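Notes, p. 3: input format for complexes.
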Amino acid sequence: MLIGMDVGGTNLRLGVLQAGAVIEEMRVAANFSEICKTHTPDEAWQQILTISADLIKAALKKHPKIRAVGIGFPGFIDPVTHKISQSPNLPGLLNVDLSTDLSALIGLPVVVENDALVAAYGEFCSLNGAYSDLIYVGLGTGVGGGLVLNGRPFAGQHGMSMEIGHMITVPHGRLCGCGNHGCMEQYASASGVAISYQEATSKKNTADAIATLARAGDIAAINAYETAGLNLANAVSHMVKVLDVRLIVIGGGMSQAWGLLAPAFQRALDAALIPVLRGKIEIRVSTSGDQAGIIGAALLSVASR
Ligand SMILES: [Zn+2]
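Output follows (305 residues plus zinc ion):
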């Protein structure tokens, strides 16, 4: 038995895995970002550790046969030290060692990896060996990416591979949180869709509400999703030219609106690909809901790396 844990923006989710399937899910409200903003880094870190350890201990009480914990974390994980070198969600915390500190509290080995990378691995494992490689694209508030190559998650030399949301698709475009202009996630994420819609209409709306408007025929809403599809296709065409991976899995909350992105995406992808590759790239929308991250993190805790 294994635990997979997913650190989200407002809650911490945990799944107990037995024979590759989640047999129990537990969650606790936890806003780590808010904790970091309102405490000193040391105090914030202690709180984060306590909240995480308490949730794991509650699971261990019910399932004493759990032997390892894997955690998907929204941040850059150093592939050598396995420390969280930086996380946009944890302002003030640098080079924190979640795996060592948490392991000391719960008495089990803990593996920490980037959240999009564990989702990629979870999707890969759910395909039961049908593919050797895949690219995972997580469309949420931002855009994350994960790569599995030859059956192994690929983190890169600095734990920063597949930061695809920051591929520049609009030169001199919208200012991004990373400091550059025109990053793909400024157009293809939920927040990007909201910005596109607001630029056209001066109205603020969520990506979900804009999706509803688009389905009802609202032109500005349709255009906002089309812009998302075009920018995502631009980035994906570059990834495919570099990596020649056949399968792209689309996940994250905004994947539920994939039908609105898909026509523009497919058109732009075909146009940008080397002709011989057209029609050979498979795009799949994730069917694992939000469980890919939990499953991937759990399986990664015992995978040989
Ligand atoms: Zn950026």
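The CA atoms of residues 212 and 291 lie 25 Å apart.
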